[in-house]
Amino acid sequence: MEDEVAEAGSKFQFANLTQLARNFGRSLIDIIVPPKCLSCRMAVTQGSSLCISCWQNLQFLESPVCDVMGTPFAYDQGAGALSAAALADPPPWDRARAAIVFDQHSKNLIHALKYKDHHEAALMMVRMMARSGRELLAEADLIVPVPLHPTRLWKRRFNQAALLAKPLAQIAAKKYAPDVLVRNVATRQQVGLDQKARQKNVKKAFQVPQSKLSELKGRNVLLIDDVRTTGATVAACAEVLKKAGATQVNSLSFALVLEPRRFHIDV
Ligand SMILES: [Zn+2]
Predict the structure, then answer these.
(1) CA–CA separation, 211 and 34 (whole Å)
(2) From ligand 1's centre to the CA of 259, what distance in Å?
(3) Which of 32, 107, 223, 232 is 20 to 30 A from 264 (CA-CA)?
(4) How far does residue 36's CA lie from ligand 1's centre (Å)?
(5) What is d(CA 38, CA 93) in angstroms, rounded to the nearest whole number?
(6) pLDDT digits (tens, 9 = 90+) for 12-49
(7) How many Å apart are CA 181 and CA 212, to the nearest integer?
(8) What is the distance between the alpha carbons of residues 54 and 41, in angstroms, rounded to a whole number?
(9) 0.85 cut: is pTM over it?
């Protein structure tokens, strides 16, 4: 017993020392390289954060939203209310949510993560996504990042959707399943393409490996991506996942482009 207490005590001391060393290391790094706002790169007091101005500029997508598209309503129309877009052209996914509106400010965050190797941006993005997607996360059986083609993954070295999906799965205590969906066609980048071109570009781009069919059967899948633009990618993924046996496919993205036709989208 005494030995156990002594061992626990030494473990505690070691953990404290490790934490102290970490804090010291962090302070030292902050002195040498002062933390900068993830969006505008102005100096901030804490690392992995935004300055007050950038934070205030983010447009959070709060309720009420269309239950299927996740687009905002001007006033509350009751639970499960659908937008004209969802009624006129129902997408193959069930429900979609996003944390914030895609604009110059959210674009800076996505670019920091995707093109500037500021992977610490993912932490903040995940926290926002966990909030707006709490219902979808609670219902999900599998958390699946929208996959990159292996060639692009090799070039970029990481999949930004996976950087968001993995911690989201951990937060929600759900199964992270990055292998149930693969991108088997190296599509051209969606940047600069309109809705029709995007649909054509990603059609047949995704596949469920034969060995993963049993994992998907009867499951509720939550697809994770950094930005939903026209919805063409989510639609292509949802079709394939449902065909493979998933009963429900929902989508949670960090940002949502509200007017794809009007906005110059370069993500
Ligand atoms: Zn800023």
Answers:
(1) 48
(2) 24
(3) 223
(4) 8
(5) 32
(6) 455 565 565 666 555 555 555 678 898 888 888 877 78
(7) 8
(8) 10
(9) no
Neighbours of ion ligand 1 (CB under 5 A): 37, 39-40, 51, 54
Q: What is the distance, to the nearest Å, from the Cα of residue 108 to the centroid of all Cα atoms in its chain? A: 15
Mean pLDDT of 193-209: 79
Name residue, tokens 């941006």: 121
**Is residue 194 helix, strand or coil?**
coil
**From ligand 1's centre to the CA of 152, what distance in Å?**
30
Question: How far is CA 149 from its chain centroid?
Answer: 17
Distance CA 195, CA 240 (A): 19
CA of 74 to the centre of ligand 1 (A): 28
Fold entry, domain 64-256: Rossmann fold (3.40.50)
Strand partners, 251: 96, 223
Between the CA of 53 and the centroid of ligand 1 the distance, in Å, is 6
Query: pLDDT tens digits for 86-120?
Result: 999 999 999 999 999 999 889 999 998 888 888 88
Rounded to the nearest angstrom, the distance between the alpha carbon of 54 and the centre of ligand 1 is: 4
